[in-house]
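Consider a typical record:
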Amino acid sequence: MGLFARLKSDYLYLSGVLRSLRRITRVVRNPDLTFPVVMEGLAGRFGDRVALIGEGEQLTYRDYNGRANAYARWTLANGVAKGETVALLMHNRPEFLVAWLGVTRAGGVCALLNTHLTGAGLAHCLNIVSAKHIIVGADLAEVLETARPHLEGKAKIWVSAGAGGEPGPMEAALAGYSQDPLGKDERPALSNEDPCLFIFTSGTTGLPKAANVNHYRVQAIMNGFSGATNARADDRIYVCLPLYHTSGGVLAPG
């Protein structure tokens, strides 16, 4: 590598680091500005712009945020207290990101389950996070059944239909809740120190372990990557990784 090319490379690297630090510093200085709050601002600014594209479906920023409000109200209505867990077993699609945003907006912790697990391994993940509810894609309902004999708790199961399919119990339940912004009396007090997601290790050296990712770490990951890549409003990112992993489900959408 020549001198000019090396200097250019160093400049690009340092510029990315500085952008990331500036964005993460804003998160540190505003401890109550969690990602669910940030998303409300984005929906207000970019309402009709497309936010998420999946196979056979797409959601605008307004759709994304509004559906998340319905999930938040569903979470609260079903007795999920702040810090309690709702598990999510779903293949990659926009609804996955909507669900975890809504659950965490209500103060719940969303456990992102590996869709390749079955039986005792899947049940182990549900048991260690004490899931109160499980949202499962219709195409994974049989997989979840293999874990039932090993479950320790009495989590309620909600089946979510895929895009274009007949509405499932999850969609029927959500239809009863408003997509309007949550009022002050509905919102739990949240800060970036509160837990947000459970993301599991691969389990290559034993059973999977649950990493507790708080709201700060979620935003640090998002802002760090978008700053390093200098992501702009006209960029589009193709997510080929599973959304239940940090890279696919947090870093990429951020």
About this structure: Strands lie at 50-54, 57-60, 85-89, 109-112, 131-137, 156-160, 195-200, 210-214. The chain has nine helices and eight strands.
